[in-house]
Design brief:
Length: 411
């Protein structure tokens, strides 16, 4: 029987990843509970379990007093005369152990012992899950869509189920049962019912981590993702730069024949991804961020974090994007408040003309009033899209945080 117990503990240790010492402690606690239940009172119970053989013994201890008249609590004390019948040589002041035969435990006592062990295993299982996934916060893992309860989808991660709540589900993304998906781990908060693993399909860092998996140059630090702006399910803009000369950061992310970016797009269910090159010059960066639109001029104020952009008349709708999306994502990506006007509109708009910034002395496009400009001309490309009139001003939001662990998830 003891060998079977040890085998069972070995299996639990491997399957549940629970230390055998913890399991032995649980057995000791269960035997104590059963012994107290069997005796019908809270005796001074001691349980000893041999870790090598699996043998165990249950005792309850009593203090030896001189006579029966000195006994104040017969559950805790025994007279010297009675104690010597059990163990010769004991005297008043000694503590004597009386062994309890566990085979005499009744059904109720045995049931209580079983419940104590199961409860301990459940607690340790939850704790091991927490320890496993708390180190994966800010990482991407693969799971299987298990079920949907209300607006929450349960994702099986292998050793535990994660919760994909309504606000972390991509709009109009239809996740089917048993489908394999990649999710971003937001956190592992503790609740009254234990620990919950919260994951996301909408977080911008999901895109970051997917590119880290696909692009070797990002993984080894050759290429760096500077910022990401995302509208889940629709479009993402990502700014990258190279830390090594002669390495094209955009080309590295796109991959040969677009293989790398296509793999990420497929995982995101055909979400559009624009990859642009980061530039330390705000004007150039904003110009890149507004891609694929062609830009005539950018007047950026680094102190105020604002920029005025001039585009060809036929490119205005492309620069703004459907429902303002292109301009809105560019603002998020760069951290600048962007005001876009066509060339025709810019002629009569203060701040959109070069003469508004010209001073007696300037060099290389850097002006005394702190503005930086980016200029490009001579486009022959025609772009057909709905015409927009007037200007669009999009307020920027704070740039997305680069490290997910710095985020706090409020359940």
């Amino acid at each position: 029987m003891n060998s079977e117990l040890l085998q069972a503990l070995d299996m639990l240790e491997k399957e549940k990843e629970i230390s055998k010492d913890i399991l032995f402690a649980a057995i000791e606690d269960s035997l104590k509970a059963a012994c107290k239940e069997h005796l019908g009172r809270n005796e001074n119970v001691v349980v000893e379990v041999d870790r090598e053989t699996g043998d165990f013994h249950c005792f309850y201890e009593k203090e030896v007093v001189e006579t029966d008249d000195d006994i104040e609590d017969d559950a805790l004390q025994i007279s010297e005369e009675e104690a010597q019948k059990i163990a010769a040589g004991v005297v008043a002041g000694d503590v004597i152990r009386l062994e309890v035969d566990s085979a005499e435990f009744g059904r109720i006592a045995a049931g209580k012992a079983k419940n104590v062990i199961l409860q301990k295993i459940r607690e340790e299982e939850k704790s091991s899950v927490y320890n496993l996934y708390k180190d994966k916060i800010g990482q991407v893992v693969t799971g299987i869509v298990q079920r949907q309860v209300g607006n929450t989808i349960s994702i099986n991660l292998g050793k535990a189920d994660a919760q994909l709540t309504e606000k972390e589900i991509v709009p109009e993304e239809n996740l089917r049962l048993t489908e394999r998906v990649k999710v971003y781990i937001l956190g592992v908060p503790e609740t009254k019912k234990g620990f919950r693993i919260l994951v996301s399909r909408t977080h911008a860092n999901l895109v970051r981590k997917l590119f880290e998996e696909e692009v070797t140059e990002i993984k080894d630090g050759t290429v760096e993702i500077v910022s990401i702006a995302r509208e889940p399910g629709s479009r993402t803009k990502m700014a990258v730069r190279s830390n090594v000369p002669d390495v094209d950061p955009v080309g590295a992310c796109v991959g040969q024949g677009g293989a790398r970016v296509d793999a990420v797009v497929a995982e995101l269910r055909n979400e559009k991804i624009d990859i642009v090159e980061w530039d330390e010059n705000p004007g150039n960066f904003i110009q890149n961020a507004l891609s694929p639109a062609k830009i005539v001029a950018v007047f950026a104020d680094p102190e105020e974090k604002t920029a005025k952009v001039v585009v060809p008349d036929y490119q205005l709708s492309l620069a703004i994007g459907k429902a303002g999306q292109n301009a809105r994502l560019a603002a998020k990506l760069t951290g600048y408040k962007i005001d876009i006007k066509s060339e025709t509109q810019a002629k009569d708009a203060p701040g959109f003309r070069y003469e508004d910034y010209l001073d007696d002395e300037y060099e290389d496009g850097e002006y005394e009033d702190g503005y930086e400009e980016s200029y490009e001309e001579g486009y022959e490309e025609e772009y057909a899209e709905d015409d927009y009139e007037g200007s669009v001003e999009e307020s920027s939001e704070e740039m997305l945080e680069e490290n997910a662990s710095e985020e706090v998830y409020d359940e």
